[in-house]
Structure formats: C-alpha cells, structure tokens
Write a structure and sequence with these properties.
Blueprint (H helix, E strand, L loop, with lengths): L2 E4 L20 H8 L4 E4 L4 E4 L3 E4 L8 E5 L14 E5 L4 E4 L1 E5 L1 E8 L5 E3 L6 E5 L2 E6 L6 E3 L10 E5 L2 E3 L7 E3 L2 E7 L12 E5 L4 E9 L9 E4 L6 E7 L8 E3 L12 E4 L10 E5 L2 E6 L16 E6 L8 E2 L3 E5 L7 E9 L11 E8 L7 E5 L13 E2 L11 E9 L5 E9 L5 E10 L1
Parallel strand pairs: 1-2, 2-5, 3-6, 4-7, 5-8, 6-9, 7-10, 8-11, 9-12, 10-13, 11-14, 12-15, 13-16, 14-17, 16-18, 17-19, 18-20, 19-21, 20-22, 21-23
Antiparallel strand pairs: 23-24, 24-25, 25-26, 26-35, 27-34, 28-34, 29-33, 29-35, 30-31, 30-34, 32-33
Length: about 450
Amino acid sequence: MAIIYLRGTTGSDANDGSSWALAKLTLTAAITAAGSGGTVYVAPVHNESYNNPVTITGGATPDALVKVVCVNDSANPPTAAATGARWVNTANTTVIAGFFYFQGIALRGGSGAAAVGLSLGNGNSYGLYFENCQIATSTTVTTVKISLGVAGATSKDGLIVMDNTTVRFGSTAQSLTLARNVRWINTPAAIDPAGAFPVVLFLESSGAAGTLECRGVDFSALGSSSSLVSPNATGSNIAYKFASCKLGTSVLLKAAQAIDGPGQGPIIFDNCDSAGTNYRMAHYKYQGSILAETVKVRTGGATDLTQPISWNMTTLAPSFFAPLESPMIAFWNDLVGAPAKTISIEIAQDAAAAALTNADIWLEVEYPGVDTSPMARFTRNRAADVLASPSTHAASTAAWPNLTTPTKQKLSVTFTPLMKGYCIAKIMLAKPGVTVYVDPFITEA
C-alpha cells in the first residue's frame, strides 16, 4: 500500500511515483505501484489513451480499495481535489474490477466507428465508487453499451455507486446495461448534453439480478423520444427505485414491455417529476400499476396540504395469492388495549360497475399486537380463503365529484393494538382488469 503520483505530461513508468517530479506515466502502472489499499493522485492535465484490451484491477476487499483521485498538482502532497483527468481506450474494451474509489476522472471507451464500450464491475466481488466523474462511450456504433456490473453466479454481491457522476453516449441506440446492484445519487446532470440522448437509458443484461436505486438525479435531458427503463432481458430480475429525481417533460418512465412475472422486480417512481410537485408517483408491477391522481379525488380526502390526491390502481394480472399491493400508509397508534380501533379507507370505481367483494379488494393492517415484543400481527377484511363465499364491501356516501357514475365503497378493519407504535395499512387489489381509485387517507373510529 503506497501513495503514487500520476501525470501523463511529465511522468514515466520507470519512476517510482513518489512525487510529482517522479510521477508515473500510466494509470495501470500507478495502480500496481499503489497496491491494494493504496492511493493514486492524478494530475488534472492527465490525458491517457489506450488501444489495447485492458483490465484495471483495484483492491482485493472493500476495506482495501484503491483510491484514484484527481487533485490539484501544484502542491506536493496535494491539498485539494480537482477534475479534468481522462482515461480513454479507443479501440478495445476496458474492464474495471475489484474495489475502487474514483474522484474527478473521465473514463471513456471507443472512438468513431470502433465498437468499444466500458465494463464496470467484474469478478467474484467488486465495489466501485465514482464521485464527480464521467463515464462515457465515444463510439457511434449502435450496439455498444456501458455495462454496470457483469451477470453471473460469481458476482452477485457487486455494487457500483455513481455520486455526481454523468454518463455520455455516442449514439441514441446505446444504453446503460444493468447486471447487479447500482446506486446513482446527487447528480444535477445525468446525461452529458454534448453526447447523444439514448432511446432507452437502462437495459437489463441477460441473467441480471439486483437493484437500481436513483436518488437526487436529474434525468430531464431525456424527452418524449426516450424511456428510462426497459425491463426483461432473458432470465433477468432488476428491482428499480427512483426517488426525488427530476424527469424530462414527456419522457416515458417504462418502455412497453410487460413485467414477466409476480416475482420480478418492480419499477418504482416516488416524488419524481419534471415540474415543481412533490406528490407524483408511479409504481409498475406484474400485477398492474399505481399512479398518483390529482383530478379524480375524494372531497375531504388525502392532500399534501396543497394538492388533493388519490391513487389510480389499475390491474393487469393479479390474483388472490398475488394481488396488486399499494404503497404503505403508516399511522401512529398511541392507545393500548381496549377499546378496539376501527380504520377505514374510501375507494371508488368511475363507472356503474359491480360492487367489489372481499375477494376482489381488501384492506390489510400490520400492527403491534403483542405486548411482550415488537412482533407484528396482521388483520384484513379479505375473504377467509378461496373456499369462502365472498361478501360485498359496504357502500359509501363519500363525494368523488369528478367521477361520472361512481361506484363508491368503504374498506374497514377492526383490531386491538397491544403496544404503542406505527401501524401500516395497505390496499390489496386482486381482481383483473379493473381501475379503482383509492383515497389514501385513514379515518379512525
């Protein structure tokens, strides 16, 4: 483990890398000299180009990662981080494996018609943290992708973090392909406008399994000709979570492909929009979708104190065993024991439809039902089992003024909490091919 200096304008790999005056010339030589757990200080003028297959291997374990940090090279040792350093492979694929922290580095693959991308994360175990970086492919070849992780049985624990890190593409047909776990945060401009805007930003590799979490990322450069997510490569299962992100005005959140099965990862957008709102959400699952609704709402119902809202729950292929499950509605219980607590949720269909039964839709509550531990109990107003005769939920007189011929009902459950604490309510919709508006406001009795 050592501190090594790297500056392509004056360095030499024959140097020991112990100072700017004795800096290394190439990143691979500097990383080798630094060793597992070491640090490479990179001058902002460093601009290195390769045209051979390269595998850059970092630390062997997370606590021995290699730090590659672009710094101001006017001081020895450096006193401030910087940006501007570049590493480019123009004609062959670059693979980055092991454990790394990169700061202020632009990593690029390909040039012109060379079909070259980047493969980030490889091997049995890897962890890559990119901060204030750029990850790019400069080729115009449409089949080239930037691979975030590598699918396979030996790399299931890999993680890539992109912190204030932009991506750049050379063609609209290029994408980020997901294989394992990726976390993208704190990025005011996700897509470099100097490059192309992809038709689909996130694709799945065959055999992919993991999570994508995006928080505080600005995707607004992607407009109506782009989709953020296209799921369902062969044998893949990525769970998507976008929270508090900025979106393009008319970007498609999800491409037209269906989600394959009830166990496949959902595509979740919470508090993501192109405008100054903080209530928009869209949850896509195999069973259907749940969207924030601002027009078809209940009078006196849920609101963020400015905008009344409801949830549009529309089903595709749910079942009694795998219903479309709403987000959690958490509420605090401050009373213990008798009398029992009864809570209710208002629902409506925008048609003179058949009233829903307790085999079609139900309210489920998880509550502290044991007085000697925090173990939860569950209660629901669902039909007891598939053999039980369904009963129709109670009709409601609640006002839904923007529904034309509404069928209005109320879901209620009664339970007795035995400890103070949070209770969690969810709506479960098991009937295929219906749209139900849910007012996510709990009334108690």
